[in-house]
Amino acid sequence: MIKILFADDHEMVRIGVSAYLSAQADMEVIAEADDGTEAVELALQLKPDIVLMDLVMKEMDGIEATRQIKAAWPEAKIIVVTSFLDDDKVYPALEAGATSYMLKTSKANEIAEAIRKTYKGQSILEPQVTGKIMHKMREKPIEQPHEQLTKRETEVLLLMAQGKTNQEIADQLFIALKTVKVHVSNILGKLEVQDRTQAVIYAFQHELVE
């Protein structure tokens, strides 16, 4: 039996959904909560297999409740079931640790199937949610290799571009020769180049030096 905790501040919603899920041969709603605070308390006390979490509730919202449950119990599997698809709900809920994200407009059998799949370790997202995530990923600028360099590694790279040797770099930056060699090795790795010459070429190509 998949043991379920259902948190929602609408009593009629809880009654209807709980009745449907408890009628499933492999599911049992072991507790209900009408606000986030109670949801956290019951989740940590009962350790259900699945927590169905509404987002907009009194006392504490579902996002904060999810965050607190995951902080105290990282293995918790939480399925958000909400009416909201706004960015200020979707992303914070997933960042808080929600395993799956479903809409209340979903059919009852879809919710039940999402519970089964989440119980088995899958993450189920509404198609609209998946679309939002993909769109956000496309909007996110791609990090350039040199943006991974630390401030000190960037200084070493610029001195390399000036033609200075490791010893000269060590003297100018007042650091050990061994430290310079470590920085050079890190620079080559982060820039994904084979040698100092390629690193210097990279620096000029990306206008890190004039």
From TrEMBL:
Annotated Pfam families: GerE (PF00196), Response_reg (PF00072)
InterPro entries in UniProt: CheY-like_superfamily, NreC/VraR/RcsB-like_REC, Sig_transdc_resp-reg_C-effctor, Sig_transdc_resp-reg_receiver, Tscrpt_reg_LuxR_C, WalR-like
Keyword Transcription regulation appears in the UniProt entry: yes
Annotated positions of the 4-aspartylphosphate modification: D54
Cellular component terms per the entry's GO annotation: cytoplasm
Subcellular location: Cytoplasm
SUPFAM superfamilies for the chain: C-terminal effector domain of the bipartite response regulators, CheY-like
CDD domains: LuxR_C_like, REC_NarL-like
Gene Ontology process terms (BP): phosphorelay signal transduction system; regulation of DNA-templated transcription
Keywords: DNA-binding, Phosphoprotein, Transcription, Transcription regulation
Ranges where the Response regulatory domain occurs: 3-119
Example GO molecular function: DNA binding
Domain (HTH luxR-type): residue spans on this chain: 142-207
Matches recorded under PANTHER family: TRANSCRIPTIONAL REGULATORY PROTEIN YDFI (PTHR43214:SF37), TWO-COMPONENT RESPONSE REGULATOR (PTHR43214)
Listed name of the protein: Response regulator transcription factor
Gene source species: Cerasibacillus terrae
